[in-house]
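Entry 12.
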Amino acid sequence: MLQRDKIKSFVELGKFLSQFSEKESLENTAVLNNDLFFNAFQDLIQLSQSHNGWYTKENVYFAIQSWAEALTESNLNKWLSAYNFNDVQSKTIGLILAGNIPLVGFHDFISVLISGHNVLVKTASNDQHLLPFLAKYLIATEPKLENCITFVLGKLEGFDAVIATGSNNTSRYFEYYFKNKPSIIRKSRNSVAVLNGAESETQMIALGEDIFRYFGLGCRNVSKLFVPKGYNFDAFFGGIFPYQDVIKYEKYANNYDYNKAVFLMSNFQLLDNEFLTIKEDSSYASPISSVFYEFYENIEDLKTRLINEGEQIQCIVSNDLIENSIPFGQTQKPQLWDYADNVDTISFLIGI
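Predicted 3D structure (tokens):
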């Protein structure tokens, strides 16, 4: 199957997804296969939270819109122009996907297909509906893809290479189990923000998006702040105040109550605004409803530390304080060429 046909299919999928938004979903008669998929996808979005309690309609629509913006012909061509696919021999690539945020494994899915391989997918137990639906749409748009896409419920078998995503604990199992296969094994990572006190109110509000989108469950969510000695957190708390309604969501509120109680029983010093606690801590991974922070004295020393501890960090947010950092509010809008863990998935797939 020619790559240009696959690109065309992904572009059509992007057009399909662009019809759906939290404010209003409008059917575009020019979009292919709407008669088969539009209403069914609307129904699936409405049911998503019953499949996974964290998949609120707001967050599912956000993920859908993010992919609609990514899957354009210009973006796909820009992404793929850096690679030579001429010598790729088609193989079967196993994917073991996480289920922490909606469509979290979709980038790996399209990377395998666009590279000329077949994909064998094991979805997470709490995310077994969205990706298979989009796969059906792709197949309806380009029937030849049916022979390239397989979903499995049981043991993953019959693959030539694997991309597996999990926690630090499950990654050790993956590394052992897949030791004789080419693999990308993704572990737990967290994202950080580096502040200096000169950030604008707009930037602080945008930082709230980086913290609270998907309830903080993604590896690209900011879970740790680095702030200068003597930093006044008033601007930070003012910026995140618009996100106060997060506490109205029961699962989040339960985590907030539990984690706050644990911190207080341990006599930790907290700053708290009744929907988020922040705690001075050297760790990167904070629990849901909490963000850790650390003071720094010298920005150059901090840069060195972030480089040395890079394997724990997914992305860095700052106002150009750190080289290659991401602007505030953009962590959950990666481009196609922004690879998880800075591992070039396409290069891996080409080289198998």
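Annotation: The first strand starts at residue 92 and ends at 96. Residues 34-51 form the longest helix (18 residues).
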